Amino acid sequence: MSKTTTDLLYLVTIVTFILALRFLSSPKRARQGNLVGAAGMALAIGVTLAQEGLENYGWIALAMAIGTVIGVVGARSVKMTAMPQMVALFNGVGGGAVALIALAEFHNLTPLPGELAAEESVTILLSAVIGSISFSGSLIAFAKLQELLSGRPIVYPAQQFVNGAVLLVALTLGGLIVAGAEGDALVVALIAAALLFGVLFVLPIGGADMPVVISLLNAFTGIAASAAGFLLHNNILIVAGALVGASGTLLTLMMGRAMNRSIANVLFGAFGSVTGGGGPAAAEDGRSVRSTTPEDLAIMLAYARRVVFVPGYGLAVAQAQHDVRALAEQLEAKGVGVLYGIHPVAGRMPGHMNVLLAEANVPYDQLKEMDEINPELPQTDVVVILGANDVVNPAARSDPGSPIYGMPIIDVDRAGSVVVVKRSLSPGFAGIDNPLFYDPKTSMLFADAKKALEDVGAALKEL
Predict the structure, then answer these.
(1) Is 147 strand, coil or helix?
(2) Most CB within 10 Å of its CB: which of 28, 38, 159, 335?
(3) DSSP readout, 408-434?
(4) Residue 189: what are its φ and ψ, rounded to 5°?
(5) Please, are residues 145 and 87 in contact by the beta-carbon 8 Å criterion?
């Protein structure tokens, strides 16, 4: 295949990636965006395999077959509740692949001492370091989300000093490579140091901040892939990596803004230590909560004009997305208006709640982002909170001493009535108490979200 034809087909692929990102920005066209992006990637792979001088087709075919099986089985068998873990894992694999490319190219480009050009050594350094950090960091994020590790910040004395020392070692090894030092062991040591730093980097970050961490590590993988593109002189890898890096960076900044926190605070603040909990009927300091029943909630919803559901990770854990959709259909049949309030960082990855509700075929026009739903809440009769906690905590507005003070929230306490479906009064991932639970207009339905919604639906049928 000629270079002109290759460049033209790569340009087509680049256009498909840009269109895919554009379509993915809207729930209505997200499926189309996935298909366009997949088609572009298939074209990119085909063009790359058609290049002259390519060898070892048998090994390439075997690797592609293994990867295809893993991808298909993973995508079809992983539950929607585990989607954040899968995203973290797949993103980490991309970073690890880039690190291995850096190692292979360092070996191929240095048959004799002093033959590695400065620009090549710099791209090898960036690919190895950033790719390795993304790989190991994503694995730790996966372990936290999968509850193989504690979701709380894991801290120890002199943590920042240790992290700085490990990063300094990695940069020193990288400096030796740029200065012309030879030997595969040097890059192996560099990758090992970067892998260790990735682990230490993510360990002190709490589960509440995992959406931001996943987005940031995704940006890291894109940057590393782009650097590898310069190393391999591959235009499509450069552009695709830059797109991933730029979109991941913008998403990270937007999510930090949504929590009114700097990225430095997210990464180095060890945010998420538990400060207290509570039982199902009473709280500390003598405060009490009002409990309700599925039957009472059914009556409340049946006579409402507008109901807003606010989903959180508890809805995902209970796999209750289809049940909330079924309950909404019952309410709509009775003439009740139904909307869903989506907080930007609800769940464990960007857009987690949107994906979850889309799987249950919730109409797109009923999904309202935080800025859209907040003006509607004063005219809302009942808000039903399904497993959300920190994103509806009014302490973010009223308590300057709260760790989440200043974080934009869904203003559920401004609705007529609030019902919180939750198994207990335990704090969310931020680890702080929620005064909403003790508000006189709030009722608590202590139950698993799926069971609660099924019971409310059954009671609604009897009215």
Answers:
(1) coil
(2) 159
(3) ----GGGSSEEEEEESSS---TT----
(4) -65, -40
(5) no
User: What distance in Å separates the CA atoms of residue 362 and residue 377, rounded to the nearest whole number?
Assistant: 20
Greatest Cα-to-Cα distance within the chain, rounded to the nearest angstrom = 84
pLDDT in tens, 170-183: 989 888 887 777 77
Coil vs helix vs strand at 291:
strand
Q: Which CATH class is domain 284-461?
A: alpha beta
- The two structure tokens encoding residue 235: 């235009």
Compute the distance between CA of residue 134 and CA of residue 397 in angstroms, rounded to an integer. 35
CA separation for the pair 157, 443 (Å, rounded): 42
Instruction: Give pLDDT tens digits for 270-302.
Output: 554 444 444 444 444 556 789 999 999 999 999
Q: How far is CA 244 from CA 15, 21, 442, in A?
A: 14, 9, 42
Residue 28 to residue 224: CA distance in whole angstroms? 31
Which of 118, 119, 122, 124 has the alpha carbon at shortest distance from 105? 124
Question: What secondary structure letter does DSSP report for 337?
Answer: E
Q: What is the pTM of this model?
A: 0.78
Enumerate the β-bridge partners of residue 311.
Answer: 386
Find the catalytic residue in 390, 413, 433, 455.
390
Task: Tell me the three state secondary structure of residue 348.
Answer: coil
Cα–Cα–Cα angle for 16, 255, 151, rounded to 5 degrees: 110
C-alpha 251/C-alpha 267 separation (Å) is 15
| Residue among 396, 363, 169 at smallest CA distance from 260 | 396
Enumerate residues 6+ apart whose C-beta is below 8 A from 117.
Answer: none
CA distance 160 to 269: 11
What is the distance between the alpha carbons of residues 439 and 454, in angstroms, rounded to a whole number? 26
Q: What is the pLDDT of residue 180?
A: 72
Nearest-angstrom CA–CA distance, 21 and 11: 16
Q: Has 390 been annotated as catalytic?
A: yes
Residue 444 to residue 289: CA distance in whole angstroms: 7
Q: Residue 188 burial (CB < 10 Å; 0-12/13-18/19+)?
A: middle
| Positive or negative: CA dihedral 29, 236, 352, 25 | negative
